[in-house]
Amino acid sequence: MNQINTQLGELAQGGVLRVGVVYAPSMSTFFVEVDEHGTPYGPTVDLGKALAAWAGCRVEFHAVPNSGELTDAVEAKEIDVAFMPMDDERKRRVAFGPSYFVIESTALVHETSNFQSTHDLNQKGVRVAGIANTTTIRNAARVLNAAEVIPVTSVEDAMSALQDDRVDAVVLSRDVLTVYEQKIPGSRVLDGTLHSTGIAVAVAKDRPVGLLAVSNFLERAKSSGFVRKIFDDAGFTLDPVAPSGM
């Protein structure tokens, strides 16, 4: 057994690496889509497959509707590894390695609204939807403390709430919202940024050897151009890969 297999043995017990991903109606550098057979596909799936192949083990994907559930699953060791946005709350619960992409969160609103920037949302009576237990909604609740920040379960629920006029805005990362801006007639992405953070690889806190292995893998995947190729193959040619060492 080589060094990589030995290190990942702390994670891939029984020769299977359980990788968590988050599904949504439209793929992004973070979100995956699920086909008619229930099989997920997207950049994080490609990273998970490559990690398992690198370690010489099989891979098993667990798809959930939001990154809050992903955090719960990593902490409970129901999955072995995942890629998710970082914040201080999550750092208390799981161990993070390097990031492969940096997100900045903003908001999607109705085209006819008077909002021009994210700061305009911070008003009494403004209803803002965000995905429950995520870095984005936690930050939105701090920054938009005069508005009503409403948690929903999934991206699909958030977009439905906006289309049905149950909320005035949806907060998510800019790269994701630019996709939905094209899909939802009469919507637009606001100027301004609520917060920025990296999407990083994560494992349970008491698995330092496994964390070292997945961190080494991700840094090599970035420096070799593999992450860049994954983005390009998925159509995200304008989305930059996080720099080495981040």
Please characterize this protein's 3D structure:
The chain is α/β, with parallel strands linked by helices. It has two domains: 3-102 and 197-233, D-Maltodextrin-Binding Protein, domain 2; 103-195, 3-Layer(aba) Sandwich (D-Maltodextrin-Binding Protein, domain 2), CATH 3.40.190.10. 34% of the residues lie in helices and 28% in strands. It has helices spanning 3-8, 43-55, 67-75, 88-91, 135-143, 155-163, 174-183, 208-223, 226-233, and strands at 16-22, 33-34, 40-41, 58-64, 81-85, 94-110, 127-131, 148-152, 169-173, 187-189, 195-204. Strands 1, 4, 5, 6, 7, 8, 9, 10 and 11 form a nine-stranded mixed sheet that branches. A two-stranded antiparallel ribbon has the order 2-3. The longest helix has 16 residues, at 208-223. The chain is globular, with a radius of gyration of 18 Å.
Topology overview:
Layout: H1 3-8, E1 16-22, E2 33-34, E3 40-41, H2 43-55, E4 58-64, H3 67-75, E5 81-85, H4 88-91, E6 94-110, E7 127-131, H5 135-143, E8 148-152, H6 155-163, E9 169-173, H7 174-183, E10 187-189, E11 195-204, H8 208-223, H9 226-233
Parallel strand pairs: 1-4, 1-5, 7-8, 7-9
Antiparallel strand pairs: 2-3, 5-11, 6-9, 6-10, 6-11
What is the structure about, briefly put?
Helices cover 34% and strands 28% of the residues.
Distinctive features:
about 250 residues, alpha/beta, D-Maltodextrin-Binding Protein, domain 2, 2 domains, two-stranded antiparallel ribbon, 9 helices
